[in-house]
Structure formats: C-alpha cells, structure tokens
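Please review this one.

:::
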Amino acid sequence: MDQITAMRVFARVVEAGTFTRAADQLQMPKPSVTKLIQQLEAHLQVKLLHRTTRRVTVTPEGAAYHERTSRLLAELDEIESDLAGTQAQPRGCVRVDIGSVVANLIVMPQLPAFFERHPRVHLALGVSDRPVDLVGEAVDCVIRGGAISDQTLVARRIAQMAFVTVAAPAYLARHGAPATPHDLMNGRHAMASYFSAQSGRQVPATFVRGTERVEVQGQGRISVNESTAHVNAALTGLGLVQTFGPIVQAHLDSGALVEVLADWAPPPMPFHVAYPNRHLSAKLRVFVDWVVEVFAPYNAGR
C-alpha cells in the first residue's frame, strides 16, 4: 500500500461524503478507493469510516486521523509546490468553477495565450452559475460576482462590472422604451428575470438614480437560472434584461441590443477569484495571476 496515496484518498472520501463522489473526483475506479481505505484501516488497525448504502460517516478515530493527516498532507503539498515553483514551468491540473457567460465570453477566448505561457498546466473548468463547495467538490478556485462571505477562502478582487439594462430592437419597436423603472411595473413591459440556481429565488433588477432606488421583480413569461440563457432572452426579444455591461458590449456595438434606462444603473458588482486559505501551489498561483490580468480591463465600468 502507498500510504500517502491512501491518506489522500481517505481525505477525499471524508470531504466528498461518499465513495462514489470521491472516486469521481480522484478519477479512480470506486473499487480502488474502497480497497485503499480497507488497506489503510488494516494498517492502522482501527475503523476510520462507517459505511451505509447512502452515506459515509467518520468515526471519532477517523476524525482525529483526518485532522492530523490533513495538516501533514498540506505541508507535503507546500514542500512540493515550493520545489515546483523553482522549475521553469508549473505543471498539473487546476480545477476551476466559473459562471457560464463569464466563462464563454471572457475566459475561454483568452485561454490559448494561457496555455502558450504555461504548456504543462491544464484546466478542468466547471461552467455553471451554481455555487460550489470548494473543499467538498475538490475545486481549486472559483470566479464569481458579488461578495465572498466564506471566511475560509481567500478572495482576490479582479473586476468591478457595471450593469446595463438592454432589450432587442424588435422588442422596443413593439413596446417602446421605458422612461423610468416604474414603467416596468405597469404590465406594459416584460422583463426576463434571473433566479438563483441554489435557492430558486428570483433576483430583482435594481435601479438607482441619486438617492432613489427601485427594485423590479420579473414581469415577463420567462425566468432563467443561467447567465448565457439570460442574455439570449434579451437577444430573442423575450423582454428587458439587466446584466453586466462587458457581457453584452459586442451586442450593443452591433445593434443587436439597445441600452435603456442608462441613467438608472445600479452600483457595479465586484468580481473575485477565490480559493481555500492555504498555501498556493505553483500551478494555481500562475492561473490566479493570469485571471487578474484577463479581468483588468473590466475594473472601470462597462
């Protein structure tokens, strides 16, 4: 038995909560994961996990072992990371989670330059608007808009994106352009809304002018929980949409979308790259630094 590998597998099972999920994250066959845990328990002569058909729970001995070995593995990773950092090229896989529209329109077009700069690093991109558990899902970092409240994460601000409210010319030809946000609440206009993939709650569109603030719930016949579909709702004339300026700038430039209520824009939203509060590996460090570069043009408005 490779004891270091067995310790890493044990840690992943504890954090993932199931053998199946741990095997998927480790890209190992589930029987191999099970065998390593059995060998580790036999070696230690102690039961580390309670197993049922649905879940895995940690024994008191397993919890104590996990706490101490986690520190050991973190120190080992730090040693390896420092040694790798002395090499010309960082290497390995970085698992990243990122919102859909930001991934497709900002990050993906720039990736060839990243791979040219770091040919031995490869990325596993989880692309969705669903919040993730970085530790439980073995994700190295996330790129997200809004405040980061998790104190176990390091959050590095990378951008401030302004909001715009937009509609397709065909929609405006049928319904006209609203003069104030109050026009969105009288039934004359449809607003395609966005709801949280986590809670299912609708996120109201916010309009601010001076000291006046107006929140509008979606009045249209469609709501979505994914940012690319939200933009497409505007492009196809399903209603007004409030989104980030950089995301729709090309559509505004081409005339496919038209901005409305420009003097009622809410404050910009901060964007962060966030990662667990631990020593940065060389591969993650170069990715985070690159992300900061890529998002730098979006720090001053649209």
Summary: The chain has a mean pLDDT of 87. The first strand starts at residue 49 and ends at 51. Residues 60-85 form the longest helix (26 residues). The radius of gyration is 24 Å.
